[in-house]
Specification:
Blueprint lengths: L1 E5 L4 H12 L3 E5 L8 H10 L4 E3 L6 H10 L4 E4 L6 H6 L1 H22 L3 E7 L22 H19 L4 E7 L1 E3 L18 H10 L5 E4 L11 E2 L1 E3 H13 L4 E7 L5 E2 H12 L5 E4 L8 E2 L4 H6 L8 H14 L8
Parallel strand pairs: 1-2, 1-4, 2-3, 4-5, 5-6, 6-11, 7-10, 8-13, 9-14
Antiparallel strand pairs: 9-12
The structure holds nicotinamide-adenine-dinucleotide and uridine-5'-diphosphate.
Subunit structure: Homodimer.
Pfam families: Epimerase
Cofactor: NAD(+)
Length: 336
């Protein structure tokens, strides 16, 4: 298939481009590089030895999309492009609602105009809010507490209504848990600008000596050791989940969790990282981070049964690959 990948230069998008190209699909990337770099496109080509068509455009720009859809015969789209920092979304709600919602709507309009009926959307486990674990796709979503989460829930709603009105569309809503790690070759990975907010990139910076110690946000949660529990999934397993979704496109709306089904605490992840890489990660326990929940992990039955999609890479592989990318990224421009 010819797949338009929005946000394909970003963290999850770039790994998915690799998985798509390796599965024999043709990839067209649309990315405005607001949180990524053009070099990543070259790295994807280097890893796969395949070509990619790249458009540096904003996907809220209808005219720019017209060019892409008229230049290419697109069979389906995977929409990753979006702003994703929860904290920033509280400070810049308008930017988040505009970018994340308008992109979804303008892309849907372009799909309708050019007869593209296959739409895969990057959603998030954040739509479940503070529910009872494991999260199964059918539970009632809890109101989220930040604009970022709202944009995911609203985009899901918009796409669901569009699919209802257009029964020949296949809409797949993929709810990601916590993607970590990097491609095994160390060429592409997660390279957040500035000090990382997320746990794994923070750990790798501490391991590298760029940050002094990890701050563990709370050890008084009702979890195995008191620290927060999340479902970490290797980014290549997540990427391959998109290939599985494309292999199983059917009309209607289909929602899948993409996680491992395993909950891991902050302390367990620190320990796994230290063991996988034989390196120490100094830490201190501090106050809980506002808005955090105790535990978040997936019920993965639906994706495993309907998509035959099961995460293959374990926690040690996630830690090893995250660290390899961090070590090999010396000299990257965005490092501080
Ligand atoms: P990322 O920031 O690395 O990638 C997003 C890409 O989209 C970037 O390359 C950015 O330049 C591009 N982009 C943003 N707005 C754009 C626009 N208007 N036009 C064109 N390009 C634009 O983020 P990621 O971690 O790869 O996340 C990809 C998607 O998955 C996002 O929608 C995110 O909300 C969702 N998601 C991510 C996580 C996570 O933990 N990383 C978890 C759940 C869901
Ligand atoms: N966390 C932490 N220190 C950090 C970053 C995160 O203790 O510097 C904890 C956080 O409280 C949560 C877990 O690690 O329990 C995962 O946080 P992350 O921000 O990576 O993902 P999310 O909260 O979005 O699931």
């Amino acid at each position: 298939m010819n797949i338009l990948v929005t946000g394909g230069a970003g963290y999850i998008g770039s790994h998915t481009c690799v998985a798509l190209l390796e599965a024999g699909h043709t990839v067209i990337v649309a990315d405005n590089l607001c949180n990524s770099k053009a070099e990543t496109i070259d790295k994807i080509k280097q890893i796969t030895n395949k070509e990619i068509t790249f458009y540096q455009i904003d996907v809220t720009n209808e005219k720019a999309l017209d060019t892409i859809f008229s230049d290419n015969l697109i069979d389906g789209i995977i929409h990753f492009a979006g702003l994703k920092a929860v904290g920033e979304s509280v400070e810049k709600p308008l930017e988040y609602y505009y970018n994340n919602l308008v992109s979804t709507m303008v892309l849907s309009k372009a799909c309708r105009k050019y007869g593209v009926k296959n739409f895969v959307f990057s959603s998030s486990a954040t739509v479940y809010g503070d529910n009872t674990v494991p999260f199964v796709e059918t539970i009632k979503l809890m109101p989220t507490t930040n604009p970022y989460g709202e944009t995911k829930a609203m985009s899901e709603r918009i796409l669901t209504d569009i699919a209802k009105a257009n029964p020949d569309w296949a809409v797949v809503l993929l709810r990601y848990f916590n993607p970590v790690g990097a491609h095994e070759c160390g060429l592409i990975g997660e390279a957040p600008n500035g000090t990382p907010n997320n746990l794994m990139p923070y750990i790798t910076k501490v391991a590298k000596g760029e940050l002094k110690k990890l701050r563990i946000f709370g050890n008084d949660y009702p979890t195995v050791d008191g620290t927060g529990v999340r479902d970490y999934i290797h980014v290549m397993d997540l990427a391959e989940g998109h290939v599985a979704a494309l292999n199983n496109l059917t009309e209607g709306v289909h929602i899948y969790n993409l996680g491992t089904g395993q909950g891991t605490s902050v302390l367990q992840l620190v320990k796994a990282f230290e063991e996988a890489n034989a390196i120490e990660v100094p830490y201190e326990v501090v106050e809980r981070r506002p808005g955090d929940i105790a535990a978040c992990y997936a019920d993965t039955s639906k994706a495993s049964i309907e998509l035959q999609c099961v995460a293959k890479r374990d926690l040690l592989a996630m830690c090893r690959d995250a660290w390899r990318f961090e070590k090999e990224s010396l000299g990257r421009k965005d490092e501080n």
